[in-house]
C-alpha cells in the first residue's frame, strides 16, 4: 500500500490529474450502473400489482409499464457503457488536442492564423458538437424507432426525425457559437475580474433564452396555438387571478406529432407569464384521441398519428389541478430559488475557473503542453475538474426538487384540487407508462419527483380531511 502511494506521488502532477479524472469518471459510471442494476431487478421481479396499488392500476397497464421501463433501463445501460468507453478512448488517444490541431488547420486555411484563437475555438466547438451528434445518432434512432415505437409512444416518421435533428443542430449552433465567442472575448479582455463579467454575461444570456424560448425557438419545432376560448381557458384565467399570477396567454403545443408523452409548463418574467399545455395532456384536444376523417391518411406525410382505444389526457378539472401544482412552484418561490441557486453556482464556478486557469499542469494533463486555449480551459475545469462537485450538487438539487414537489402538491390541495390532482397523477402515470415501484437507493439518487405512491398518500390524507 505504501509502495503504491510512493509510486503515485512520484508521478508528474499532470499524470496524477489525468488519472484522477479518468478514475472518477469510471467510479461515477459504476455507481450509476449499480443503481440501475438494482432498479432493473425491481422491474424483473415485481410482476404482479402490489396490494397497495390495486385500486389505482390494472394488471395490464402495470405489465406494460414494467416492460417499457425494463427496455429503457437496458438501453440506458448499453448507451451509457458506450458513452463511457468513447469518452475514455478520446482522453487516452489524445482526441481533444487532435481536434484542436485540426481546428487550427481548418481556420488557418481560411486565413485565420494562431492569433485568432476565438475563431479556432468556434471551429473546434462546431466539430466537437458535430462528432457528438453523429455518434449519438444511432442510439437516438434506436430509442425512438425501436423502444418508443414498440411501446406506442413514437409518432414520428424517419423523415420527420432527420428533419428535426438537422433543425435542432442548426438552431443550437446559431445560439452556441455567437454566445461562446462573446464569452471567450469577455474572458480575454476582462482583466483580473473577468469572472464577474463572464458570470453577468451568462446570467443575461440565460434570462434572454428563457424569455424568448417559447415564443421564438420552440415554435421552430412544434406548432403553438392559443388555447381556444371556452370553459377551460376561463377556469385557468380565474385560477391564475385568484393567486395573483400575471397570466397573459395560454398556449397548446402540438406535441402529439412527435410523441404521446405529456407535459405542461409556464414561462416569462415579471408581469408577462404564459402557460403552455401539451395537447397530449388535454383529453379534449389530443390528436391521439381523434379518429382521422374519412379519406385522410393520418395527419400528413411527416407524422403518423395512432388512434388508441383508450382516451389519453386529463379532463378539464384534472388539467386545472395539474396547473395548480405548477403555479404552486411560482407562488411558493421555487422558480426564483432555483434561479438563485443556479446563479450562485455559476458565479462560484467562474471564480474557481479564474483561480485555476493559470495552472499549466491542467492543460498538460490533457495534452496541451505549449498552449493554454481559453475554451479548452473551460472544458477541462468545468467538465472534468469540477465533476466531483457537480455530482454532489446534482444530488442535493434532486433532494431539494422532491421537497418542492411535495410543497407544490400541498399548494394544489389548498386550492381544493386534491381529488382532481390525485386522479390526474394516476392518469399521467398510466399515459406515460411510469412504473410505480422503485428501489429506494435508485429513487433517492435519481428521482427529482417523489414516487407516485408517496404523492398519492399525501393527497389521500387531504381528501379524507
List how many beta strands DSSP finds.
Answer: 4
Radius of gyration: 25 Å
- Report the portion of residues in β strands: under 5%
Q: What characterizes the major β-sheet?
A: 4 strands, mixed
Percent of residues in helical segments?
55-70%
Overall pLDDT, averaged?
A: 88
Q: Based on helices, strands and strand pairing, what is the structural class?
A: mainly alpha
Order of SSEs: HHHHHHHEHEEEHHHHHHHH
Please report the distance between the alpha carbons of the first and last residues. Answer: 62 Å
User: With helices defined by DSSP (H or I, 4 residues minimum), what is the helix count?
Assistant: 16
**Which geometry do the CA atoms define?**
globular
State the strand order across the main sheet: 1-2-4-3
- Poorly predicted ranges: 293-309
Pfam families: Peptidase_M48 (PF01435), Peptidase_M48_N (PF16491)
Catalytic activity: Hydrolyzes the peptide bond -P2-(S-farnesyl or geranylgeranyl)C-P1'-P2'-P3'-COOH where P1' and P2' are amino acids with aliphatic side chains and P3' is any C-terminal residue
GO cellular component, one term: endoplasmic reticulum membrane
InterPro entries: CAXX_Prtase_1, Peptidase_M48, Peptidase_M48_N
